[in-house]
Amino acid sequence: MKFTLFEALGLLASFVAAAPPVPAKPTAVSQTSNDAHLLPRLVLYYQTTHDSVGRPISMLPLITEKHIALTHLLVCSFHINRGSNLTLNDYPPHFPLFSTMWEETKLMKEAGVKVMGMVGGAAAGSFDRDTLDGPEAAFEHYYAQLRDAITMYELEGMDIDVEQPMSQKGITRLVRRLRADFGPDFIITLAPVSTALAMGGNLSGFSYPQLENEAGKDIAFYNAQFYNGWGDLSSTAGFDSIIRQSWDPTKILAGQVTTPANGGGFVSHNRLNQTINELRAKHGEIGGIMGWEYFNSKPGDTSQPWLWAQVMTAILRPNLVPQLTITRATAEKLTRLWHYSGRPGAEISMMMGPPNVDYMAMINA
Ligand SMILES: *[C@@H]1O[C@H](CO)[C@@H](O)[C@H](O)[C@H]1NC(C)=O
Ligand SMILES: *[C@@H]1O[C@H](CO)[C@@H](O)[C@H](O)[C@H]1NC(C)=O
Ligand SMILES: *[C@@H]1O[C@H](CO)[C@@H](O)[C@H](O)[C@H]1NC(C)=O
């Protein structure tokens, strides 16, 4: 969801052009979500996987630090690449640099956090006419790569972040196919810019109200991006205008950049607290809070990124902290894997030095 100049220009253009004549409103507002018991949700994207010297960034503080009640972690960004294989950011997901990360996701799941993937984002290509938005043969070819990654890494859901024009039929096909292949418990979400839910500007081309009408029962929630010029959370106005379009408030998340470094429209945590309190007073329970992204969140920045989740837990869902069990065997395995999880170029130094994450200190069973 990082923003390029090219996209900024597109954004300007869409503000000028955004006024659909016949407003479609979502009518399928029934709560069919398979994770409704996790309301209000606290959702965090995990995209930057390695620090500036190439060491993996541990996600475990999100469960080992106290007073955090994260509900969903979205590992990202998966990209479909025409003529090639699926990547997670710049590398195939099975490369050794991700081995610590995938092992850690197992612990996150054991602690009750839903671990999902996200496909798409700011880098276009995943939803082209010759990939996931293509004719049957192309769709089958590239969808199979995504399906296999979900199976391989035992992802519990998939967030579809369409930031390029995609057809209405194409998005419905993708949602329905994920549901058909992974069954009723699989969590399917989308990540529209917030204005796209309220008849304003959009990046995806298709209509979200129409998608909700066609496939809403298969969509657990929407990670609405209230940033980068697409709405904001300095007041309730943007969220209110979505609810006025008949959306179910429990399906809409207040999506926020976790630091001004990740995009425009960062709102102070005091201000955000106020907005969230007012939203819940007005609309009853809301879908929750989403943050983009983990590694550099305020107030802890890169040295203590989990502090963001502590502050959000205090705002949104205090006293709902999941439990974690780490055995000696698990801690030893993570320590071993860490040495092989350097980003290419950093492998040598990683094999020698001790991990900067003390897995052995986390043993509690
Ligand atoms: C999305 O934005 C494009 C570009 O501004 C516009 O042409 C289109 O009508 C919008 N679609 C919807 C469903 O609002
Ligand atoms: C894609 O993956 C397949 C199976 O792992 C492999 O045989 C093929 O060489 C890969 N293609 C590219 C372009 O990397
Ligand atoms: C949020 O605001 C409420 C009402 O003003 C206040 O009681 C609460 O302590 C605040 N929470 C946080 C985490 O700032």
From TrEMBL:
<dbReference type="InterPro" id="IPR017853">
    <property type="entry name" value="GH"/>
</dbReference>
<feature type="signal peptide">
    <location>
        <begin position="1"/>
        <end position="18"/>
    </location>
</feature>
<dbReference type="InterPro" id="IPR001223">
    <property type="entry name" value="Glyco_hydro18_cat"/>
</dbReference>
<dbReference type="GO" id="GO:0005975">
    <property type="term" value="P:carbohydrate metabolic process"/>
</dbReference>
<feature type="domain" description="GH18">
    <location>
        <begin position="40"/>
        <end position="319"/>
    </location>
</feature>
<keyword id="KW-0732">Signal</keyword>
<protein>
    <submittedName>
        <fullName>Glycoside hydrolase family 18 protein</fullName>
    </submittedName>
</protein>
<dbReference type="Pfam" id="PF00704">
    <property type="entry name" value="Glyco_hydro_18"/>
</dbReference>
<keyword id="KW-0378">Hydrolase</keyword>
<dbReference type="GO" id="GO:0016787">
    <property type="term" value="F:hydrolase activity"/>
</dbReference>
